[in-house]
Amino acid sequence: MKFILKIALAAVLLITATGHPALAAKTVRWKLAETWPSTLTPLASPPAQVARMVEEMSGGKFTIRVEGKEKHKAPLAVLDMVKGGQYQMGHSGSYYWKGKDINTIFFTTVPFGMTTAEQYAWFYYGDGMKYMQQVYDRFKVLSYPGGNTGVQMGGWFKKEINSLDDLKGLKMRIPGLAGEVFAKLGVNVTNIPAGELYTSLDRGTIDALEWVGPGMDIRMGFHKAAPYYYTGWHEPASEMQFLINKRAYEKLPPEYQAMLQAAMKAASGDMYYENFAESVQAWDKMKTEYPDIKVKTFPLPVLKAMKKATDEVLENYAVENPLFKEILASQRAFMKKARQWTVISDYNYIKTTLDLER
């Protein structure tokens, strides 16, 4: 991937050096606000990569200064800051804005929804991008895919979950639609910024939390405070997002717009690969370096209750919100077709190879 990006950058630089309009374009200085600390890779990787690429492609005339939450101190206000023009760009997760518009959840992920490949296909070759921009038009910002985590783990719990009764009264950090699902099952749900997660779990402010997957979770140290690590159901393809102030984007020269578009698409794909690689290594280390971690899957009755609650939450919103109903129908229709191919291709290939190893 990095080799391909270097070739692309070299080609663009060669063109600009031989008379491309970018040489004459004005100097542009932008700022980008992240929901995460700037050191929290791979979540923080796409903005840094985009800034690096546009600077190289423009010969240093288009630069983006990336500021993490440690700088602006407002991790869950990124949309407002981009909308208001304090920052020309932001990097966050669309489902953080569900309180402003419930339709934003579709552009991160929904419980029991599409895989990463299925969701990217919906974005770029289905109706995903169309609906995403329709939703964000009201905020006068543009929204683009900003990197995917793949299937996220179901979270870290201080006690084992054997039945629905074990969820009742549990204090848990879990955002998005999954938070509403857990709330229906008796969980006391909260959302806490990344920098406060470990302290909240360690001090007992919360009893459980979900973050991402082993690659990021082990670095956060959650296993020291909660030994039970559950497999995922709630975020099968969590997409981050780039937000862009629409007025600022429209003022960019066309060549800068093209550079930004290309950089965002490349960086979003690269984050998925980076996170996957980190999780592969962390999962392998867990077996020897972290033997006290107890990997669990939620019992089938609990999963069935989660699925039922998810369907109820989705249907309730669909009744109240025509656009929600339309986007939900689009995702379900695409997923129904895509899942047939996912099963016959990836699922059957993996199942076959595992059978051969037995």
TrEMBL record:
BP terms from Gene Ontology: transmembrane transport
Keyword field contains NAD: no
GO cellular component: tripartite ATP-independent periplasmic transporter complex
Residues that, per the record, bind Na(+): W211
Xref: InterPro entries: DctP_fam, SBP_TakP-like, TRAP_DctP_sf
A Pfam cross-reference name: DctP
Keyword Metal-binding: yes
UniProt name for this protein: TRAP-type mannitol/chloroaromatic compound transport system, substrate-binding protein
Organism the protein comes from: Candidatus Electrothrix marina
